[in-house]
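Need the bound structure for flavin-adenine dinucleotide, inputs here:
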Amino acid sequence: MHTDSADVVIVGSGMGGGTLAWGLARRGISVLVVERGDYLPREPANWSPEEVFSGRRYKPPDLWLNADGGEFRPGVHYVVGGNTKVYGASLPRLRERDFEQTVFPAGVSRAWPFRYADIEPYYSQAEALYRVHGATDDDPTQSWRSQPFTYPALPHEPYVQVVIDRLRKQGVHPSSTAMGVDLAPGGSCIRCATCDGFPCRLGAKSDAETCALGPALAGGNVRLLTNTRIDRIDTSDRNQVTRLVGECEGEPIQITGGSYVLAAGAANTAALMLRSFDDRWPKGVGNSNDLVGRNYMMHNNTHLAAIDPRRKNDVIFQKTFAVNDFYDDMGDGFPGGSIQLIGKVQGSMMKTHATRAPLSVLNRLARHSLELLVMTEDLPVPTNQVSVTPTGQIVVRWERTNYDRHELLLAKTHKLLRAVGYIGIFEQRFTIDMNSHMCGTAVGGADRDTSVVDGLGRSHEVANLFIADAAFFPSSGAQNPALTIAALSLRMAAENDWA
Ligand SMILES: Cc1cc2nc3c(=O)[nH]c(=O)nc-3n(C[C@H](O)[C@H](O)[C@H](O)COP(=O)(O)OP(=O)(O)OC[C@H]3O[C@@H](n4cnc5c(N)ncnc54)[C@H](O)[C@@H]3O)c2cc1C
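Answer from helper R.:
Posting the output first, comments after.
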């Protein structure tokens, strides 16, 4: 059996794990990152819609089960950098209110174990680390910030600017998307049409490998084991993790350390804890209160394609504005969410879902469409849950929550889009397999009866076990999650005693 060890062992090299490695390296701590996947190759296929979308080139063959036992292919990427290798690099902060309890007509979005002010300095650090370009003065709903953005907002292309001008006439405030790309002077970003959902062939996207793990590895305190999957966490009688067990390049491996951090992504982190059951932990390690895997969230999301047959959309880099006017209040006293442009969709990408439509028709539609994402908050409920079968396969029980808010924001978005000239609007509502924003399966909190880890990610029950990924989220807010995951990791790295 192979063996390895380090002061801190991190499972997973995505947004949570990669950023934590960077933060710990700065403190001079020796870190071993264990990643089940390999480096994602830079190759022509990176920018092929057919390879990336229809061919699922960078997705694993994993099949997960829904509540009825039906199989689905999850939106996960097992590569160095995790899901950030293909993400859209939209990196907004959650709002101050998102860290407090919010009551919706359909239920409660729970408070975080700390306030916005406690994480704010780490948001600034994360924005600098991930080269976030943004503006401080165009979004009236933005929370206060101690630092301006290091980089200016991305300029809007002429087609997008016309939409913004028309939206302003409708009384809303389109604001710059906070984007993590390398557009500083001398930067490598060319603002191409293959950013959102594609790997970057130029290394210009601010993913966790490029911005955090790579620099951490170069510094000397951090090592990375690729193609190494952790299958089990073993503990001693004294409620300490003693080793991780798994497979490296097909051979068994055991890894020991002082502290062990799970950053395998919300579903895999919970699954790893649940698979690690024994006589002392019959419900899985660190799971006496049976909360591991519960409170699974993934946002209520819908993609829209809005068609104006009279205007050709010749944009290349489309994702430059969002409308947050309805974030805190949809006019009825309750929060709504965010309306965002997404990367320009090509006909062949539409074909992944509109399988029966001829490509020529989809291409014609794509030349006249503007694509958006409407995002609202889903709620943490214990019955939305990740579990594992006796053979270890992941099961996701998921029903939509708080969906009336989503319907309302969709209706408002339709109205706005029609008012600015779009006469046809197609919707694609996210289904269980579109779980790219999943979170909440091992929530952070002060109360050990209602949470799995404390406010700094340490297990309430196993002193040297931590969680540093989206599993920590007590509630999801309605902004893209990655910057918050990074800020959480930086806070964990700085404020925990890792001795
Ligand atoms: C197409 C797409 C677009 C997105 N766009 C955006 C966006 O614009 N903005 C935004 O904020 N968010 C976006 N997201 C979501 C964002 O990427 C995720 O929220 C974020 O990456 C999650 O971070 P994480 O650390 O929780 O998990 P991940 O980044 O998924 O990392 C988990 C890592 O753990 C590894 N791993 C899993 N199991 C094991 C194991 N047993 N042993 C060893 N290693 C393991 C995985 O291989 C992976 O590398 C997008 C996601 C997708 C898929």
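Comments: The pocket of flavin-adenine dinucleotide is lined by residues 11-17, 34-37, 75, 78, 82-84, 86-91, 197, 229-230, 263-266, 268, 272, 436-437, 469-470, 480-482, 485 (CB under 6 Å). The mean pLDDT is 96.
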